[in-house]
Amino acid sequence: MPRSPALWRPTAAFLRSGAIVAVATCTAMIAAAATVGVVKAAGVHGGVAAATHALQVPKAADGHFWAQARVNGRPIRVLVDTGSSAVALTLADAKALDLDTSHLDYDRSVATASGPAAAAPVTLHSVSVAGAEVADVHALVVAGGMDASLLGMSYLGRLSGFSADRQALTLTP
């Protein structure tokens, strides 16, 4: 995927801020605002809630896409990141989800802007953004080096599609 200057500048600035940089499969990173469009769930097919229309996540003033997700039924603010191969949770968010972080097996190494960090694989019962729910989502709990949890490709890749333009990220359940 070619790097457009418009996508690369916010990405480079974000990477310097301490976010995870190489749990990645893509070279572009998208990020965004907490306000999202409304999706009406119509059913669940293959672990993904079907919806009658796509939802939009507007771009925040900082140039990133932030979303209010529900993970295992609890709200957490996440940075939408197509460059992260998995949903990646900070220790604080994992604890807020009542994951027993002291008994996880931190046997993976991930690269963050702050340097390498240990990570533990987990499976989340559900991840939902504006009603677009995905069941049994593979994720990582990252022991350090991240300021925010990331909504990565283990969620996004299970949607029918997603796209970004200058104003918003569109998720299609």
Structure description:
By secondary structure, this protein is mostly beta strands. Helix content is 13%, strand content 44%. It contains three helices and 13 strands; from the N terminus they run αβββββββαββββαββ. The strands form three sheets. Strands 1, 5, 6, 7, 8, 9, 10 and 11 form an eight-stranded mixed beta sheet that branches. It has a three-stranded antiparallel beta sheet with strand order 4-13-12, with no helix packed on it. A hairpin with a 2-residue loop joins strand 8 and strand 9. The N terminus is likely disordered.
What's the helix and strand layout?
Blueprint: H1 5-16, E1 20-22, E2 41-45, E3 48-51, E4 55-58, E5 66-71, E6 74-80, E7 87-90, H2 91-96, E8 108-112, E9 115-129, E10 132-142, E11 149-151, H3 153-156, E12 161-164, E13 168-172
Parallel strand pairs: 6-11, 7-10
Antiparallel strand pairs: 1-8, 2-3, 4-13, 5-6, 5-9, 8-9, 9-10, 12-13
Structural class: mainly beta
Percent helix range? 10-25%
Number of H/I helices: 3
Extract low-pLDDT stretches. 1-45
* Strand residues, percent: 35-45%
Largest sheet report: 8 strands, mixed
Average predicted local confidence, pLDDT? 77
Question: SSE string, helix = H, strand = E?
Answer: HEEEEEEEHEEEEHEE
Estimate the global geometry from the Cα principal axes.
globular
Number of strands: 13
Radius of gyration: 15 Å
Distance between the termini: 23 Å
